[in-house]
TrEMBL record:
Classification via PROSITE patterns: BTB (PS50097)
Name of the protein described by the UniProt record: BTB domain-containing protein
Pfam families: BTB
Organism expressing this protein natively: Mycena sanguinolenta
Superkingdom field: Eukaryota
All copies of domain BTB, residue ranges: 18-77
Amino acid sequence: MAATPTPRTSERFCAPDADLTISSSDSVLFKVHHKNLEFHSDIFANAANATRPENGDEIVHLEEPADVLDVLFQYMYRQPQPDLQLIDFSVFMGFAEAAEKYAVYSALTVMKIQMKEHITNHPLHVLDFAARHGHADLANEAARMTVGLRMSDAATILAPDTFKKWMTFHDDWHAEARAAVSDLIWHITAHNRETICPIFAQCARDPKLWYKNRSTLWSTSFLSIEFMSVD
């Protein structure tokens, strides 16, 4: 049996007047203040009676690791906020999940802005997150950047329900893209043109470029296909 890690205290959250101790999943203790957590989080506010000082010195255990809680708790204190661009992607995703889970409104808006920045390099992860949390605009933009990716990758990353929905989106997108190429070929033939637009040639090799080059493409009718409906 593996030995239980010896708890250590967070260097950032170690206030001597703290009235609540929270332990991360990797045994780091955060000395924080009830009022801050209750003010910024609906979940912590609703659980206030279970975490009162008069309940003794019991430590509250959370499922998140220390690097995620360190980012999350910074949004519950009046101080300069962390630069999310400098945070490792896996930590950022853990932070995003925690911000949604604990309803930390001070973090949600900036989290969604940074999540959008990750679409280019991590479209499937962003799509999975956005679909599970109901962020339709984010999900639609991410989905359009996944149409050139391997189905096996999508099956590995996306939740089962999201993957099933993505399959339909994927098929619809490619069907419309083929129709657009057919229209282009007809257009070239009808006007006796000899060469195909370089952008279309690139898009034929990498379908997600249809979306990246949407402002300069000759036909864009299928680029509005949605993964999720926007209310």
